[in-house]
Each structure stands twice: as structure tokens, then as C-alpha cells.
Amino acid sequence: MRTVDFSREDHYKNAVFPSPFHSRQKQHNKLREWSRWSDYLSVPAYWCESMEYFAGRNACGVFDITPMVKHLVTGPDALPYLNRLMTRDVSKIKPGRVGYSVWCNEQGRVIDDGTIFHLTEGVYRICSQEHQIDWFMTNTLGFDVTIVEDTHDVAGLALQGPTSCAVLRDMGLDGIENLTPFGLTYFDFHGTELMVSRTGFTGDLGYELWTSPENAEMLWDRLFEAGEQRGIKAMGSDALELLRIEAGFILAGADFLPAAEAVRPTHTRSPFELGLGWLVSFDKGVFNGRQALLEEKQNGSRFHLVKLDIDGNKPANQSFVYTKNKKYAGTVTSAMWSPSAKASIALASLEAPLGKPGEEFEVEIYYQRELKWSRVMAPARVVKDVFWDPPRKRQTPPADF
Amino acid sequence: MISKMESVIIIGGGHNGLACAAYLAKAGRKVTVLEAAGQVGGAAATREFATGYKASCAHLLNLLDDGISKELGLASNGLSMAKSGLNTIALATDGNHLTISADRVDGGSLSGEDQAAYKEYRRFMSKYAGIIAAMHNMVPPRITQDRGDLMALGKLALKVRMLGRDDMRELLRIAGINIYDVLKENFDNPLLKGALSLDAVLGTFSGPRSNNSVFTALHRMSGNNAGAAGAASIPAGGMGAVTDALAAAAKKAGAEIRTGSPVSKILMDGMQVSGVELTGGEQISATTVVSNADPKTTIMELLGARHVEAGFARKINNIRAKGNAAKLHLALDGLPDFTGVSPDQLGERLVIAPTVEYVELAFNHCKYGEFSANPVAEITIPSIHDTALAPDGKHVLSAIVQYAPRNLGVGWNEGKGAFMEAIFNTLSAYAPDIREKTVASELLTPEDLENEFRMGGGHWHHGELSLDQFLMLRPVPGSAQYKTPVEGLYFCGAGCHPGGGVMGSAGKNAATAVLSN
Ligand SMILES: Cc1cc2nc3c(=O)[nH]c(=O)nc-3n(C[C@H](O)[C@H](O)[C@H](O)COP(=O)(O)OP(=O)(O)OC[C@H]3O[C@@H](n4cnc5c(N)ncnc54)[C@H](O)[C@@H]3O)c2cc1C
User: In this predicted structure, what is the pLDDT of residue B113?
Assistant: First the structure.
């Protein structure tokens, strides 16, 4: 079953579809607000953004990731194909493992980021934020591979937070505690196949559950039954946004402009400019952007994406960043007041060579109190580590919360 | 001793591969040319197509670079002309033909205005062709901030500026438009316009009304070896004499040439070229490989697209290279009788292009995968000037016939006979006894050319010659300086700047690029 019925003549009239979890989302969605994420209806907040955020940090939150764009890559050349497409060395991602990666155009600018799931030997799933099928197909020239965008054939739920492992164990996934970070495994789940990966977008202990759309509702129901005693909550995209900024994860369209969408090529970013140099493997052979990235490595990058710890408690969304000498330094790309770090934090793109850890800046924050606008120049410094990085994220087996 | 670093393999012994080999060998490189066919020369080789009858696919020499001729001593390596500075006879079925030479046109019912206009046309077209000629032997500049590139671009701009205000303005006006409009502006005589339009479309996928056709006309006129812009000669021994002389020069300089050695694969060691593999499995190592095969075949088939970035592979794959020139060789019992053409005119360049509209209509067919019902032709009877090409008293007719699309709708297996019939019908209208005089024939369709000479698409230029595939855009950006993105791999054939025609410049420039690395 597909989540979208393409056999219907008028399917194209509906640009946005209900997710396979829609009936259950509807029950939880007290605010009755819907937003659009890619091809699907998504929930910004079910009831209270903060409660959902805290569920993710202190219990566990359930987030529908079906809208993520998914592709299945198969065929004898799947690995060489992916290695030419991606900046990182995909041969290091063994079967049963997941890797984060970016892919670039010829100019070495990031088209999108995503995760590579090595499902079984030679079979890969690529999840991306943006639709990529055109670029992925262009890349098949000269390779014996098959690429299918199977977004609509796979339903996905993220279960994130400290109690997530226990909930899954209670749901009957025997041995789930042995799954290491970035590992994936398969379970027989009430006669259906359930794929579980220890991955997520919150920087905490968490899992992603993948099944076919017809099993979606059953999965949701079993999950909430099992999690009732452990504070499980449906989580909306607003809460997830907070969790991912604390975790230091970047978002296409917010922290960088996907290169394929750029009208002004100078506004795009290279992996180095996003702090993702560790994803660039020059010694694996040719890959898209290699030549340009080599040159950038020699000649220097234009930008640095940094984490800022900002004085005060005002979220610094959409702010300018200045040097101590009041010179323009860059702009904030994502920001929030972090309840966990108890700090105003931000990701910011600064003009190189600015942005070394410890360097001090001022952030110009405009804020409103009861319809009155004010401005503050808040001192800020570049920090090296992400704001939320608990040891339980890496621990196997995870502690029983 | 020559180190491994200095050894170079050249894939293909076409005239460009041979020129490249000669220059590299002269510079001290250890060069091995691997030619698939049993003889060198590619589409410029002279071959026996019927017992005792010889012809070369490329038949008229009008672009060979003088500098290259001298530097490689082609004359002392056996090259001479059987006939230089051919006139063009624009054939008419009623025999009322025109005789077109470098500086005048006569015959038919030509008006004085047209005769004067022809002189003016030649004046400005030769001048513009000179700008293209000046680019022949330069490695195209890249569009960068590099000083050398900027200087080269500046020099080009200066050349254009030096035309003077009026001529520069006219060049800018006509460079991108079509020859049909330009001819219409200048001439009245239909036959004259038809014959001149043929020069613009020979070897390209275009009709007189296609854009770029002024550019292709200029390209054809950019050679100067017979004294006037675009003047054509017939080498003694056919075009193969040029390639044999190039091969001799290369060998003298120390290059090794192996025929019967088709390369099936370019070998890689990591990111660097490491040699080639022949069809039989033999591997030969070299850290520099220069390919005379067309760029698309080189990257997509010999190397494999996976060894280059996707953007580059896509650009290479998108090179337009659908040939539509066929080559006809007839073995003749005796000289045919072209109506109204005197015996001493029979050895000139004879063209069938009675009006521009006729040429355009002939082109229309190939847009839809059909051959022209009434084809255009450029005909020579080289045996008049060079008796060695045919048995005593016999003759060879060599004709480029258009349009014959590479991908004929019905397929060439089925279509070839019918096309031959259309050609004979057309020829008979001008030379009624042509069928009787023919004792043997060979028709090479673009498909045959592709198989025989391994030219992708059977294309004259190894890739369409047009402004969007010229200079720093030829074959595609990122390899227009002959060096491909793959370490150690270069292009040297007609698919590179400055394009096809027996010229030698692509081969020479590629050698310059290899040596400067
Ligand atoms: C019908 C026709 C008529 C023409 N008439 C004229 C004319 O009158 N005057 C003129 O100036 N030009 C003419 N041309 C154009 C001219 O023939 C070409 O532009 C010219 O031959 C190109 O030279 P080249 O050396 O670049 O390539 P080619 O002549 O194509 O030579 C390439 C060589 O590489 C070899 N090769 C390719 N792949 C491999 C491999 N894998 N392994 C080993 N060897 C390989 C081929 O066998 C061939 O020998 C004509 C072209 C056509 C098609």
C-alpha cells in the first residue's frame, strides 16, 4: 500500500497528503493546527510546544517522519554510485549501519544533507530533506543502479528521548538495547517487518521506526500503549526544531540554502563552510564537488558556521552578528532559548576567518514585549561543543529510565 | 633514459592524433600511437574502395595549418598537392552553371551587381574568417581571473576591434544569425546563393536557415593554405597523403605507431590515468593518455562516467553529435558527362545546391529522421589530377552527400539502398550518363562512418560545430584546454577546439597542453 493513491486520476490535484499516521495524529492534535512538510500534512504542535520539547528531553516524544524524502538505491553499482554522489566514503557504512552525509554540485556547494541507511548488503536508503530524484537520476549515467523514490511506500516514526529504549523493549522488541548508535536492525512485529535504526534529529537517545504504511496505525497504537507509563507524547515539528538546534544539527533551508534552489550561487555553502569538513573524504576517489572542494581547502573557505552562546535570555532569531569593533561578521541562521542549556543559543554563519572557538561577538537582537519593540546588543562567544550531548546518547545498552 | 612519467599513449591515429604525436615526440616524449584500424588516418585516410580505385573520406584540403605543415616538414615527408586552389562550379541541370573562384564569379545569367556583391562578400567574410583563423592554434582561454587567460581574451577582443567600426558592427550583427538572411541581403542570383549556402552547412546538422550557419561558413573559410580564405586543394594520393606525412614526421621524431590496436578501456590508478587496455586484453601503461577518439566516446565508453563528476559526465553526454553527411565513392569506367561542364572544368569542385531553398528543404528531412529526397552534394573527381587513384583511363568520383541523418527512422540497413537511388537520381539530372559509367560504388552513411572510423555519431567534427560548442565551450567547459578533469587524460581530436576538418590544430594544441603541464 502507498500513502498516496497514484492510481486515482485526480491525485495530482492534492499537493499535500495525509500521512499514514493521520488518524492518530488527529486524535492527539488538540490545537487542530496543521502545517505542510514536503508532500504531507504535519503537526507543528499537538498541544504545547514546551511540553513536547520536555518529553523529548525527559521522557520520549513521537514524531512522524514519513514526509522525509526517501530513496531506495539498488543494483550492482549502488556503492560506487553513492561514493561518487556523496562527499563521504560510503564504503565505510557497513550493512546494518547508518551514516550522515551531504552531497554537492560541481562547485562543491551543498545540495542537501541526509542519512544513508545500508539496509542489507548493497541495498541503501537515502533520506533527504528536499526532493532529489532528478539529481540522483542525473548521477546514474554510467552506473548500473536503480533509484526509486519510495517516500510514499514507507511510514516512519521517530521515538526520541531517554525512555525510548525501554518503551521499545516493553513493546516487544527483544534485544533492542543492544542496538548501537547508527545501527539498524529488523524485527518481526506482529507478523510485519519493522526496521529500527538508532538514529534521530534530537542529539539524545532515540530511534527511528520504519514500516509499510498499512502497519502505521498499529505501530502508533502499540507504541503509545507501551509508553504510557514512561511519559510518551506525540511531538510536533516546533518542539523538534528546538531539540535539533540544541543538538547542533543543521537544517536545509534554514542554516544553508540548498544549491539546487539557489538563484544566487554565492549564497550557497560548501561542507567546510557548514562545519562538515569531516564528511569530506578526498582519498576515496572522484566525487561531485571534489575538485572545487580541494581548491577551497587550499585557498580557504568564505564562511564558518558556528555555535554561539549569547548573554541574556532573548532568542536571537534572524539577528546580525558584529565583531567587538562593530564590524559586520555574519548572521544567525537558527536560534532559541535553550531550556536544557539554560542559555540563549544560536547557529550563525560568519565570514571567514571569523568564528574561531572562544572568539567574542555582539548579536543585535530585536525583541518585543507586549507589542513594544526593543533592541539589545548581546555579547556572545563561539563555543566548540554542541549544547546538548548527554552520554546516554552513546551508551549501549542504554540505562533503564 | 626516458622515465615512465614522460611516456604518452595516444588513442587513435587520425590526423590530429598523429600531429599531436609528432609534436610530443619532437619535445622528447616517448609516444605510442594506438590506432584501431589497419592503417592510420581516420576519416582522412586514403582507402581502396573497389579493386584498383582509391579515395579518402575527407577529400578537399582547405584548412590544413601552414605553420604545422612547415614545423613538421610535411612536404619533405611526402606531401604534395595534385591540384591547388580549385574553383567551385555551381551545377545547373540546364548546363548554365556558375564558376566561383576566390575573387570572382562568372557564368549563368549573373548580374553585374551580383558580381560586385560577391567581391564585397568575399572581402568581409575573409576578414571575419581571419579572426577564427587566429584562434586555431591557441589553447582556448578559460573565463577566469588568471592573467594569461585574460590576456588571451583581450587579444581576441582586440582582433575584433581592429576590424574597424563598420566591419565590427557587421560581424556582431551576423555572427549568430543564419546564412540564408545574409545571402539574401547580398545577392539575387539563386544558383549563387545556393552554392554559397552549401559551404555553411557541409558537415553540420543545420540548414541555411539554422542559426550558427554564418559561423560555420566562416569556420570553413578560416583556412588559408592555398592562398585565399577557404581555398581547396587535392593532395596527391588523396587526403591519406596528409596523414601519411604526419605519421612519417611522428615516426622520425621517435613516435611508435601501432595499427590494428583498438583501445577498449582507459585504465585508472586511483584518480590518475595509468594506461590503456586493448581489445585483446593487452595492457600498456602510461601516466599520460591523449585521446583522438571523440570526447563522448572517450569519457562515456573508454573511461567510464564514474571516473568524473556527474556534472561533467552530463555535459559530455549532452554533446550534440549526430552526423548527417554521407560519403559516396564511385568507380567510373570513364569520365562522366556533366551537362555544360567542359573537360577542363570537370576537375574542379562541383556542387549541387541549385537554390538556398533547395538546400533548406533537403535539410528538413533529416530533422525528422529521413534522408533528403533531393540531396545536396560536393563532388570531386580527384583521379583527373592524380591518375594513381584509379586504373589507367578510369576515374574516381568522390562526393559528400547530405542530408543523411545518423539515426534514420527506418534504419540504415533498410534505408541505404533507397538513399543510393535518390543520390543517383539527383546525380543523373546533372550527369545523365553517371549510372552507365559506374562500375562499383561505396556509400558510407554516418552509421558506417561511426563503425569504420569510430567517430561518435559519424560526425565530421566529432561533435556539432556551433557557437555553443566552440572555443572555451568545446567540447565542454572544464576540458576546453584539452586537459580533462581526470589526471593525465587529454583530448586531441576534432571534438576539441578548433573543430574538425583536416587542420591539425587540435592535435598541436593538445600537445602544447600536455607539455605545459
Ligand atoms: C563525410 C565526411 C567528409 C569529410 N570531408 C572533409 C573534407 O573534404 N575536408 C576536410 O578537411 N575534412 C573533411 N571531413 C572532416 C574530417 O574528416 C574530420 O574532421 C577529421 O578526420 C577529424 O580528424 P581527427 O584526427 O580528429 O579524427 P578522425 O579522423 O576521426 O580519427 C580518429 C582516429 O581515432 C581512431 N580511434 C577511435 N577510437 C579508437 C580506439 N578506441 N582505439 C584506437 N583507435 C581509435 C579511429 O580509428 C581514427 O583513426 C569530412 C568528414 C566526413 C564525415
Answer: 97
A141:B304 CB<8 A: no
Chain A with chain B: Cβ pairs closer than 8 A: 44
Mean pLDDT for the stretch of residues B348-377: 97
Reported as a single tens digit per residue, the pLDDT across A330-386 is 999 999 999 999 999 999 999 999 999 999 999 999 999 999 999 999 999 999 999
Cα–Cα dist B273/B240, whole Å: 31
Mean pLDDT (whole number) for B387-401: 98
Nearest to B310 among A77, A84, A291 (CB): A84
Q: What is the pLDDT of residue A14?
A: 80
Mean pLDDT over A283-292 rounds to 96
Q: Is the C-beta atom of B500 inside 6 A of ligand 1?
A: yes
Distance from CA of A38 to the nearest CA of B (A): 26
Q: How many CB atoms lie within 10 A of CB A284?
A: 19
Residue B497 lies in a domain: yes
CATH numbers and ranges of domains, chain A: 9-66+154-246 (3.30.1360.120), 259-383 (3.30.1360.120)
CA of B61 to the centre of ligand 1 (A): 13
Total number of domains in chain B: 1
Is residue B284's pLDDT more than 80?
yes
- Rounded mean pLDDT, B420-449: 98
CB B480 within 8 Å of CB B279: no
Distance CA A181, CA B175 (A): 63
Nearest-CB residue to B310 (from A77, A80, A139): A139
CA-based torsion, B349, B353, B359, B365: positive or negative: negative
Give me A174's grid cell. Answer: 527483544
The answer, yes or no, to whether the previous bond of A397 is cis (omega within 30 of 0) is: yes
* Residue type, position B66, single letter: D
Question: Does residue B229 lie within any of the structural domains?
Answer: no
Measure in Å the smallest separation between the Cα of A89 and chain B Cα atoms: 14
B281/B261 Cα distance (integer angstroms): 11
| Ligand 1 neighbour B494 (Cβ under 6 A) | yes
Mean pLDDT of the residues in chain A: 96
Cα dihedral sign, A259-A262-A268-A274: negative
- Contact list, B314 vs chain A (CB under 8 Å): 138, 141
Q: Is the pLDDT of residue A9 over 90?
A: no
Q: Please spell the DSSP secondary structure of A200-259, one letter per residue.
A: -SSSSSEEEEEE-GGGHHHHHHHHHHHHGGGTEEE--HHHHHHHHHHTT---BTTTB--G
pLDDT digits (tens, 9 = 90+) for B19-35: 999 999 999 999 999 99
Confidence bin at B2 (pLDDT 50/70/90)? very low
The mean pLDDT of chain B is 95
- Residue B331 domain-assigned (yes or no): no
What mean pLDDT is predicted for residues B66-89? Answer: 96
* C-alpha grid cell, residue A142: 554510467
**What's the rounded Cα separation, in Å, for the pair A322 and A102?**
29
The answer to whether position B501 is within a domain reads: yes
Q: Which three cell numbers stand for residue B420?
A: 543510393
In whole angstroms, give the CA distance from residue A340 to residue A343: 8
- Closest CA of chain A from B302, distance in Å: 11
Helix (H, G, I), strand (E, B) or coil at A373: strand
